[in-house]
Structure prediction request, 164 residues.
Amino acid sequence: MQTTSNSLCEEFSNLMSKEFEMSMMRELTFFLGLQIKQCKDGIFLNQSKYVNQLLKKYKMGKAKHVRTPMTTNEKLDLNKDGKPTSEKVYQGMIGSLLHLTASHPDIILSVCLCVRFQVSPKEAHLTCVKRIFRYLAGTKNLGLWYLRGRDFSLIGYTNVVCKI
Prediction:
């Protein structure tokens, strides 16, 4: 393991071993659902394995990919007259998406808009959630790249306009 401080590395290892069942046998490659690729230039984090599991679980493995997690003219509301859908399935999908925001900050806004409808979700809400999954199917290999030895800041951009 490469480290700038062996004592800090040892302290971290001891703290984590007390909290989680783990071992320090080799380079860290998987941690709390995050895939970790350590290179000499930095660290790359993604969750492509988890995305693949979710697509399979929700039978969306062969779904057509989309370029954005939400359409630009999407207007989500209570949709009181809409056809109800399973709360259990909807809430499971939302929980899975919330976990994915750790490596996919590009879906945070869309997921947060859908979270509001976990009680009494309608088919229109489920359609929006499925679109996020279709987006993830096409972007599952994207992740976060942290360069070694440099200060960094997360900069994001979207051209999606949400109507609430």
Remarks:
- The chain has two domains: 6-46, 48-139.
- The chain has a mean pLDDT of 87.
